[in-house]
């Protein structure tokens, strides 16, 4: 995608999305580079299933510093709790995507100001899979597909734009391939780009759910959906990609675990193609700057037939997961 230095006078929102696109591309390159060097710098945050790597730290620094420099009044909320420190200049991305800038901004968002926008950042969604997929075995592991970088933009509590970078897309071609990695982005009433929208063939009911954070609530809910097949993978961003590319019909996670930075960008892209993401009760998620970060009532996402899936959630699960 062509990029350009900041020019003209597009709406603030479109400039922010255009900047998010290019910094997500840079983030993907950082994620690949850290893995190739093999020194991941892994730190356990709350346990073995809650990890932070050097890639998490560098990517969050890159995204937050780049967007803050260009849009000093926006609110940015990132997953990693990092100390205030100077950011290396080579982590800063100031260019913007020309393709994004050429899209017309929806009228209701054309006059938005920086200070009205909240950006939710997950620098490395699927960190557990990333740490397990070391550079020597990743070609056969399949785990690198799970890894994404997520930048979601919210206004008035709603996810209105999202950018997902998948750093290891096409990783089967080898680590030196110029075609490795891709960036998807979307906005309701603008469209979704960077992938081909597909649906699960033959009306099959395929549920995608957690690979490493399962429990009885999750398994009971998945079974209640009466799926033809169940896919267990890492990363919320990866699961939404499965929905829009026809590999799954529903993403079901009836548990604590995901946070707003996991769901904001994917929700915006899903909405852009007519899908829906809610909690297990069918309630919309809120992305205001002051909300609690945990999605305490779980996550349910579909491309179609959301009503069917919400109707199948067991009462015991609904009682256990309070909004």
From TrEMBL:
Enzyme class, first EC level, given as a word: hydrolase
EC code(s) of this entry: 3.1.3.57, 3.1.3.7
Catalytic reaction annotation: 1D-myo-inositol 1,3,4-trisphosphate + H2O = 1D-myo-inositol 3,4-bisphosphate + phosphate; adenosine 3',5'-bisphosphate + H2O = AMP + phosphate; 3'-phosphoadenylyl sulfate + H2O = adenosine 5'-phosphosulfate + phosphate; adenosine 2',5'-bisphosphate + H2O = AMP + phosphate
Any one GO molecular-function label of the UniProt entry: inositol-1,4-bisphosphate 1-phosphatase activity
Pfam families, sorted: Inositol_P
Keyword Hydrolase: yes
Keywords: Acetylation, Hydrolase, Lithium, Magnesium, Metal-binding, Phosphoprotein
UniProt entry tagged with the keyword Secreted: no
Listed GO biological process terms: phosphatidylinositol phosphate biosynthetic process
UniProt cofactor(s): Mg(2+)
Cross-referenced InterPro entries: CysQ/Inositol_MonoPase, Inositol_monoP_metal-BS, Inositol_monophosphatase-like, Inositol_monophosphatase_CS
Ligand binding (Mg(2+)): 79, 122, 124-125, 262
Top-rank taxon, per record: Eukaryota
Family, per entry: Belongs to the inositol monophosphatase superfamily.
Protein name: 3'(2'),5'-bisphosphate nucleotidase 1
Organism: Esox lucius (Northern pike)
Gene coding for it: BPNT1
